[in-house]
Write a structure and sequence with these properties.
Chain lengths: 112, 408
């Protein structure tokens, strides 16, 4: 089932012919050329873009226009890229940021 | 002579760029988004004359007009810092540093979040995010959503979602807390909704809103407000229910709602689950003014304008030489007002640069802003004019302070 709005009563028909492929966490996806990474992934049913650096909790888009940085991913090796502001390109390699070891946390056994 | 630089390619920034280029100056517009238009892009509503206001079309027209006039528009460029060195404004981006003697901040607005348990789950997004996904990217934010926060923006976007075939289960309130305050209080929400009743297609709502001008009727209205809401565009608007939690294992699966008293307290035992695969949080808009703060502008908190706004005058000049503001950074209003402010800012820049005398045009542009404001279809705050008067008063105080300092 597609999540794309192909026909819109006011905005008209969507031109969805220019399709390219990219990978997200080693899985191949297809999207429309120059659409945002966040939109392309959501159209594929992908909501979780990363794990929170400290808690590991899943996170997805929040504001969708670059203000909140909730959608940060790694694009072609560059960390902290906002998926909502990044147009997808052919063969783009995208990965999630995973939970990190953090030095500010108290690592003694009783806190595990 | 350096180029004029504008930060923000929304209706204000692009209108200013067009005005400045028409008067023969070089302009560079920076914007961090991938398409020009700003918040205008997502807008889609029917005007009283039956025409559809299509934000994508409007944005494209402004963008192309600016390009035709030789304006340089650099998208995908975020400004991280700015400062004044000697008589120049220095603008830092990830790749380049720019210098100008006239800088316009047209950075627009951002959405206030409402913290609700479960709000970090994937599938929870700001209502503006759902709007951009639906209208600009043409991807459904989900199949069935709940909108938390009843206000002008959320009602308009609920209608847009429905237009695109996305089901909106209901628009409802957040549970009242220290943070959600007014947006969780049914009485306050009802008051703030009354001034948008002209947008309601339903005669019942229009008629009801007239009665609601009487204080007693308001109390009665909220006390007897149907528990299952009043429908607008077939979407239940629930003022007597609130979301107490968003649930789901790894993604949104639904919300827990409860009935609330007329003053917003949750009535125990009334909790119910409503299934949804996405949730929109609508906390309202506030001016996005960080760059004005970094620059050192004095700020005032003006409720009617949506929050803290940098001090400026009717000519869109800030208290800092060579720094101008236009659009929603000056207060939350519609795109047409933003565009008219852009024109005024553009003329002020042309005038102050000494390119040509624009006194008459500036006066006319200021009147145009007023006129556009008076005729605005969507008003975000009923007392926006009072807010503007407060700001003007602060500006006069500022001028007197400067005069005193110079006098001593």
């Amino acid at each position: 089932m597609t999540k794309r709005i192909i026909d819109h009563p006011i905005l008209g028909k969507l031109d969805d012919t220019d399709i390219i492929s990219f990978t997200f966490n080693n899985k191949e996806y297809r999207g429309l050329k120059n659409e945002s990474l966040a939109a392309a992934l959501l159209a594929n049913g992908v909501r979780t873009l990363r794990s929170h650096e400290e808690s590991g909790a899943p996170r997805g888009i929040y504001c969708n226009i670059g203000h909140c940085f909730e959608c940060r991913v790694t694009v072609d090796g560059q960390q902290g890229v906002r998926a909502c502001l990044t147009p997808i390109k052919e063969n783009m390699v995208v990965t999630s940021n995973e939970k990190l070891l953090t030095t500010v946390r108290d690592w003694r056994p009783e806190n595990e | 002579m350096s180029k004029v630089i504008i930060i923000g390619a929304g209706p204000a920034g692009l209108s200013a760029a067009i005005t400045i280029a028409e008067n023969g100056l070089e302009v560079l517009v920076l914007d961090e988004y991938m398409i020009a238009g700003g918040r205008l892009l997502g807008q889609l509503y029917e005007e009283p004359n039956g025409n559809w206001w299509n934000g994508i079309k409007e944005s494209k027209q402004l963008y192309e007009k600016a390009l035709d006039l030789g304006v340089k528009i650099q998208l995908h460029t975020a400004v991280s810092n700015l400062e004044k060195i000697d008589s120049s404004w220095v603008i830092y981006t990830a790749t380049e540093t720019y210098y100008t003697s006239h800088l316009l901040l047209a950075t627009g607005a951002t959405e206030a979040p409402l913290p609700i348990p479960g709000w970090t789950l994937p599938g929870v997004m700001s209502v503006g995010a759902a709007q951009v996904m639906t209208n600009v990217h043409r991807v459904k934010p989900g199949n069935r959503g709940v909108i938390i926060g009843v206000n002008v923006l959320s009602s308009a976007i609920a209608m847009e979602l429905q237009l695109a075939g996305v089901q909106v289960a209901c628009i409802t309130l957040p549970k009242m807390s220290l943070v959600t305050k007014e947006s969780g209080n049914p009485m306050n929400v009802m008051n703030s909704l009354l001034h948008v009743s002209h947008m309601a297609p339903s005669a019942f709502v229009k008629f009801g809103s007239k009665l609601m001008k009487i204080e007693f009727m308001k109390k009665m209205g909220i006390t007897f407000f149907p528990k299952n809401g009043v429908k607008m565009w077939d979407i239940p608007i629930m003022l007597r229910k609130a979301v107490i939690e968003i649930y789901g294992d790894n993604e949104v699966e639904g919300v827990t709602m409860a009935t609330i008293s007329p003053t917003g307290e949750v009535i125990p035992g009334t909790e119910e689950k409503v299934q949804a695969d996405f949730v929109c949080i609508a906390g309202g808009l506030y001016p996005l003014a960080e760059l004005a703060a970094v620059a050192g502008c004095p700020f005032y908190h003006i409720e009617e304008l949506g929050g803290y706004v940098p001090l400026h005058n009717e000519r869109m000049e800030t208290a800092l030489e060579g720094l101008y503001v236009a659009g929603n950074i000056t207060g939350i209003e519609g795109a047409k007002v933003a565009a008219s402010q852009g024109v005024a800012a553009g003329l002020s820049i042309v005038h102050n640069n000494g390119t040509s005398n624009q006194e008459q045009n500036i006066k006319k542009a200021i009147q145009d802003i007023e006129h556009t404001r008076d005729n605005a279809f969507i008003q975000f705050h009923p007392a926006v004019k009072e807010g503007k008067q407060k700001l003007q008063h602060y500006w006069e105080e500022h001028l007197n302070t400067v005069k005193d300092m110079v006098g001593n």
